[in-house]
Amino acid sequence: MLEKIREGSQGVIAKSILILVILSFAFTGVSSYLGSSTEVAAATVNGEEISNSALEQAYQNERGRLEQQLGDMFATLSADDNYMQSVKQSVLERLVAEKLLDQNAAELGLRVSDEQIKAAILAEPAFQTDGVFDNDRYQAILRQLGYQANTFRDMMRTDMTRRQLVATLVGSEFVLPGEAQYVADLQGQTRDIDYKIIDATPFLAEISVTDEQIQTYYNANLAQFVRPEVVSLDYIELDANELAKDVKITDADAQAYYDEHKANYTQAEKRLAAHILVQLGDDEDAAKAKAEAIYKQLQDGADFAELAKTESEDTFSGEQGGQLDWFEAGVMEPEFDTALFALNKGEYSNVVKTNFGYHIIKAVDIQAGAQASFADVKDKIVAQLQDKQAVDKFYELQQILADTSYEVPDTLAEAAKDLDVEVKTTPEFTRTNAPELFSKPDILKEAFSSNVLLDGMNSDVLEVAPNHVVVIRANSHKAAGTMELADVRNAIANRLKQEQANEAARKQAQEAMTEVEASGVTADYIAKAKLARFDQEIDGAIVNKAFAMAQPAGKASVDTVALANGYAVIVLKQVNAADGVDAGLLDALKQRLSSQYSENDYRAVIASLKAKGEVLYPVAE
């Protein structure tokens, strides 16, 4: 067939067609250079476009920031397309706000001079070495970020101009001392209340609902009964840990490996070291002279441990007679290490200099190296060989799985046959209750992807964990939709019963409130003195209501509040002023209020600029 195509391509007609094709590509290429781009802008602000490429770059930067800030949690969040779309939309709104600010700054004639930019660069700590501007460091950072010097200066000019405008509009906010004091007094306020809970549970036994009521509720609240998307998967799983269970390692295999790798099972020589340290300090010559004087005392018969206690400047080891710890070769600094391993047991060294100072080192004890016996390490070797063979087998099978599931993409049967394994099937699950094997964000995202659900294809090989993979395909799929009445009938009935029971509790609470207002008697109520806003011992609805009630004027204030299962009657008897406000709390409140005011001002400025201008969000056709 290929030969016929080659022969046909030599004919006149074929050559004519080829020329036309070439010309069409040529004209297309020329138009791409001469004509304007057909890309739809992400947004247009007063006639100025924000390109999709600019949005994408800002979006990727935001993704990176969120990933660094949230860590492992970001992997779960990023698997939710709706969440990531909201992030992208917020990035676009930020770009629109910045464009509006830039335009407004230009209208106001705001400028940033070259000297101001130069001063900002010179003052930037990132470009300094020991507090002084370092041009080499500046150039290196720009190269690392991929900026030219003139491009970076232009970016700084735009940013500084924008900040000049924002500081003018927002930076003038201030908080009066009385404002912070007022908020602190409110937050520190406590209240004395009596309260009584009317439980709705006793009313449930007397309530019944009809089929008509259930149907009416269902019809009026269809949005509450949306069924999430559900999928069941067929999958093939490969796990090196499971493969290892079938690997048989003989004693002869383990012995051969031990004989070939005896060096790996040798316990290194260890030495228990002690030292007397004289730190370098400002006068190195004096430190060396002191160390040599101590060495002379040792030679004259002084006790090493006693000298360490009185003369060593390593306080911790000095209290232990200079004793440090057991060390293998190569652990300490080279000079210390060489001196220690040149000593016999009980000997001490000459004066040795390291980065820490001048040492006199003693080998307190020596633990000779030893060869571990085969019996001691046999189990470790067997496990190691099992893992190695299992991993080798895993990679071999993984390649077969990848090849076959790709070549025959509409079934897993062929791949299962080649691997001599079974195709497993999951129960139905949603995005929020996936089996553990499929709960990893990347796998969950693939399980609900169009490739698997709509196209009916096998997935790529997906990593569950190191040396543990799956390939999945859809077994069954139910799109999101409205649940049938039969599936939610009992839930609706229970909800209607609860609502009627709560209504009965509300009526009883109203009657109790009327009685208290008339008599002022709260003998069977629970008393709570000095209730604080953030009290955790009482239902939050009661606390919130108590602090929303008006202060008593002559007599107690009385009101009711709905609870999850009933109602409560609240009697507010007294409002207590805050005991005292800490100065640190006042400062924190001032900062918080100032930030809130500035944020509100900024949002108001952007809203005003939007209202006066024209912001469009074009949609590609």
TrEMBL record:
Membrane topology (UniProt): Single-pass type II membrane protein
GO molecular function (one): peptidyl-prolyl cis-trans isomerase activity
Family matches, as PROSITE patterns: PPIC_PPIASE_2
InterPro entries reported for this sequence: PPIase_dom_sf, PPIase_PpiC, PpiD_chaperone, Trigger_fact/SurA_dom_sf
Predominant cellular place of this UniProt entry's protein: membrane
Location relative to the cell: Cell inner membrane
GO cellular component: plasma membrane
Domain of life: Bacteria
Residue span, PpiC domain: 268-365
Transmembrane segments: 12-34
Similarity-based family: Belongs to the PpiD chaperone family.
Name this polypeptide is given: Periplasmic chaperone PpiD
Species for this entry: Shewanella pneumatophori
